[in-house]
Amino acid sequence: MYRKIILSGLLILGLVPIANAIEMPLLGKSPLINLVNFNILPDFLSFSGGGSVDGLPFQSELNVIEGQAITLKTILTVSSKIAQNPADIFVLAEYNGATFVISHDNDTGAIKLEAWQGITQIKPFMSVESFLSPVEVPIYEGALLKGGVTVYVGYRWDAYVGTSPAINIRVNSQTPTALTGDFIAQLGFLPNPDGFGFENYGDVQATDLNDQDIVDFLGRAQACHLTADGACVLKATAQRQKQEWLEGMTGGHCYGMALASTALFTKKIKPEQYQENITQPIRLLKNSIRKDIARYFVMQSLTNIQALINATKTPNEVLDAVITGMKNGDPIAILTIYNNQKEGGHAITPYAVQDKGNGEVWIYVYDNNYPDDSSRIVKINRDMNTWVYEGATINPSEPASSYFGDAVTKTLGAIPLSAHDNPGIYQLDVAELRLHSKQARMLVTNAAEQRIGFDFTTGVFINEIAGAEFRLSLDDGTPPAYLVPLMAFTPPSNSSDALDQYLQVIQDQSLSVEIGLLETSALATQAPFGFSIKGKEGFAGFENIQLSASEHLYVGVHPSGRFVYIGSNTQLTNLPTVFLTINDDNTQASYEYEISNIQLAQGQEFALLFNEDNSLLVMSVSKDGDNVARLDSSAYSLKMKKVNAEGQAIAQQQQITLPANARSTLRAITWESENTRTRQLSENIGKIEITTISK
Question: At the top level of its lineage, which domain of life is listed (predicted)?
């Protein structure tokens, strides 16, 4: 039974708990935290939900139009360890910048809305005698006024409290965008109803890209091991590339959203393809179109599009291209804007051009960080050949910043819609080094002591390597990728002398990489992040990098992708996971090796080399000489993956013992099909052989 009340434009409902609730998608899990002693009980709460609109379910996000009715509810499941205990459920709503506690008057049944006074003062929304079965919490039914509402459902037992993930609801105006005045050119596009009703986002799902997407982007030769009947088994290197692209989306999907909105406006795609009876893009739910937004996002990496992104233009040249595109039916789908620090970019959609006099021309843009907003403008000064976009932001969750440039900086670009009809495939003739973090930076040094990257001493980006360049970032606000020339690599034989000679050559060719945090990030807790190099034959890199303010990671990689090491001057509490992902044309197979839980004595280097026979050479060398020092025999976990036309198989060992003072090769001699395996990844799988090749 629902009881309705309208307060401050926010429609709120009373509720009655329902036992034996229907199954709903998982919204998220939450720990319980003791407010007295700060003891934490992890994953004791599980929230499902959060509701539906027009018969379609949604979970943590929703966008609607004013007057559009929604139903909002969650299902709370409590750990069996405490499910028998009575507890209170509470509901919080953030609306127009204020936080409210929603509760019932036990005597009258009326709903009360009170300002937040802290967790200890919160009043329960409802009380439940036990949680032996899931409890449904119907939170909301009705319509909202324009703006944003964020809802949280909480649980309180004794001194323990826990809160659901946020449920975010955005309400856009019923009234379409209106433009006034005379215009040099107009596309006819308007942020409302032709833009999306949801903000640019950074959440990623594994299903955003599928195997066929990767084949389309890489081409069958790069992506596939072909079966006898021509079917594609995705190579390990292609799987890694998919992971890299998904990781790149975590900072935002601005390129994909800008391109998708123009494609919808020009009828290349239609809203009803994604949601039945929907004719306006602003009414589309994110989950209905996110896969195509992800595909459009990846297009910025493809060869022909990269050529356009890298093409340098002055502000006046970009303005002319925008006007011409609006008039000839091939609109500029993407305006690219970059800041002058090489640390962020954004993709926006131009839709009208207006002469403001005195040499100033305004380009009206749809900024996917700001739905239903017609105030976003790129200002071009024809006389000065300059541009500025005030209020631009890389990420919608960050404060606004100012982007600007001139004919020298050339930080403004234009990409027509038609360019995406033939975008090419993703192909590199250089090695690409990429850091997946906004808070960290890296400096790369070659054997000649030439550098490219962020100088931690001066705090500026430098480039001293001939043929190397920066690839500026769109969407995610991360530092640029670094492109460096490739080098030939022939794996050595396993004889000790040949190996010693060749390792010296490889070390001379390898790139040294220093990774550290920005000073502005030093006081904040940093999430683990990764670093990778895409080389001639595959990928190498590190995952789960964890740094404190004073720590730097010193590593090395070969531009082929076959060799990687952790430097002896690295002194971290937790060393990262190391991976090598290589395609071997000779055996028509591809491989991925991951080694984790690494522990090194002070002054040791740890190196991995992918051998010609597809084994993994592991070395730990003392910085004081050529003698190989012992690895901690109980500290290494290894997972090997092999992919060929027959499918995918793995071998895994949780504890690896390597002989002291030796170089060792690791080779899987028994594989287990990953397609049929039912055991846990924490177990040993298959059989890995360890061979000592030199003392």
Answer: Bacteria
